[in-house]
C-alpha cells in the first residue's frame, strides 16, 4: 500500500511538472502572473505590429531599393511571430485581442492614419522608399514608447522580455533607417 501511494504521488508530481512546463497553446502562455499593463501592451502592440507588417508587405511590391526590401522582410519576419505570441497570451489570460477602448488605432503612438497608408500604397520607387523609411521610423518610435511602458509597468516576465527585445531590435532598425534616409 505504501509503495502504491508513493507511485501515485510520484505520478501526480510528474504530471503537474509536465503541465507547468507545457504552454497550453502553440504560442506559449506568457505565464499566469500578469497585470493590466501587460494586457494593454499585448492589445496595443498586436495592431501596431499588424500595421508594420502591412507596410512591409507594401515594400515588397513598391520599393525600389533592395536594402528597403531586405529591411521590410526583416520587419515582417520578426513581428509576425510576435503577433502570434501576444495573441496566445491574451487567449491564455482570458482577454480579448482588442481592448475596445482605444477609439481606433490612430490614437496609438506611431500609428499611421488610413490616409497615410493609402498614400504609401500608391507610392512607388524612390518616393515609396523615402515614405516607407520616414513612416517606419515614426512607427518604431511609437512601438519603443509602448515597450518602455511595458518594461516599467508590466508584471509578466515574458511580456517584459518581449518588450525589451522589441525596444532593442527596433532601436537598431531605426538607426539603420535614419542612415538610409541620409544617404
Report the average pLDDT across residues. 84
- Rg calc: 21 Å
Counting DSSP E segments of at least 2 residues, the number of strands comes to 0
The share of residues in extended strands comes to: under 5%
Model description:
With 183 residues, the chain is mainly alpha-helical. Helix content is 76%, strand content 0%. It has helices at residues 2-21, 36-62, 66-93, 114-122, 125-153, 157-182. The protein is elongated, with a radius of gyration of 21 Å. The relative contact order is 0.16.
Q: Outline of this structure?
A:
This protein is an all-alpha fold and 183 residues long. It has helices at residues 2-21, 36-62, 66-93, 114-122, 125-153, 157-182.
Give the SSE map.
Layout: H1 2-21, H2 36-62, H3 66-93, H4 114-122, H5 125-153, H6 157-182
Helix pairs in contact: 2-3, 2-5, 5-6
Keywords for this entry:
183 residues, mainly alpha, disordered N terminus, 6 helices, elongated, single chain, 76% helix
Amino acid at each position: 500500500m505504501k509503495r502504491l501511494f508513493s507511485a501515485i504521488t510520484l505520478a501526480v508530481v510528474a504530471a503537474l511538472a509536465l503541465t507547468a512546463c507545457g504552454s497550453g497553446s502553440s504560442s506559449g502562455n506568457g505565464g499566469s502572473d500578469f497585470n493590466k499593463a501587460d494586457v494593454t501592451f499585448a492589445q496595443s502592440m498586436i495592431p501596431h505590429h499588424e500595421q508594420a507588417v502591412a507596410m512591409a508587405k507594401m515594400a515588397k511590391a513598391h520599393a525600389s531599393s533592395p536594402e528597403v526590401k531586405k529591411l521590410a522582410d526583416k520587419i515582417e519576419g520578426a513581428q509576425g511571430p510576435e503577433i502570434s505570441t501576444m495573441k496566445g497570451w491574451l487567449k491564455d489570460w482570458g482577454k480579448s485581442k482588442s481592448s475596445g477602448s482605444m477609439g481606433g488605432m490612430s490614437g496609438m503612438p506611431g500609428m499611421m492614419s488610413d490616409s497615410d497608408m493609402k498614400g504609401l500604397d500608391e507610392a512607388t520607387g524612390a518616393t515609396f522608399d523615402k515614405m516607407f523609411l520616414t513612416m517606419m521610423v515614426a512607427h518604431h518610435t511609437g512601438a519603443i514608447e509602448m515597450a518602455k511602458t511595458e518594461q516599467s509597468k508590466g508584471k509578466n516576465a515574458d511580456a517584459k522580455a518581449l518588450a525589451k527585445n522589441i525596444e532593442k531590435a527596433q532601436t537598431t532598425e531605426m538607426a539603420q533607417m535614419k542612415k538610409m534616409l541620409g544617404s
